[in-house]
Amino acid sequence: MNYQEQQESKAYNTVLDYLRTVRLNPSNRDAAWEHFLLVLEELSVDSNFKSAVQFWTLDNLEQHRPEAIRIRDLHEIEGVMISMPAYARLLDATHHGMISFPQGERLIEEMLESCEVQDDGCDASRMEQSLLHLWKKNMSKYKDLKIN
Q1: Hey, what long-range contacts does 130-136 have (CB within 8 A, 24 or more apart)?
Q2: Domain boundaries, the chain
């Protein structure tokens, strides 16, 4: 992973941490937002990316409903091929709206097609890279937004 991808991965995890915090304790939203902005500011990504992250995060909070997400168990072969830590990351990303449920289903299919049976299945780092790629794709439409 190159430096830029590392910074984008940190942004992804910063957003996910913020969403977890706010959904766990909505009364802490203002303080959590200030902390989120401070952490985001420390990242070495361009200002358009930072703005897009902020817009996307606010939109996610307003529109995504975690309680509406229905999680399914992995089928037997999926459970053999995809490691539990990787699946846990997928569930977390879907629950918090980083990716949509259909994107998660497609990602499982892609993992099954590309991973060989291993002792630990498709690993969590590969899942993380795929989740980051999908999230950046979801967020891409926010890159051109400007506040009037």
Answers
A1: 131/12, 131/89, 131/90, 131/93, 131/98, 131/99, 131/107, 132/5, 132/8, 132/9, 132/12, 134/98, 134/99, 134/103, 134/107, 135/12, 135/15, 135/93, 135/98, 135/99, 136/8
A2: 3-66, 70-139
36 pLDDT higher than 80: yes
> What's the predicted TM-score (pTM) here?
0.88
Give the whole-angstrom CA distance, residue 128 versus residue 93. 10
Contact assessment for residue 12 and residue 131, using Cβ atoms and an 8 Å cutoff? yes
49-96 pLDDT per residue, tens: 999 999 999 999 999 998 888 888 888 888 888 888 999 999 999 999
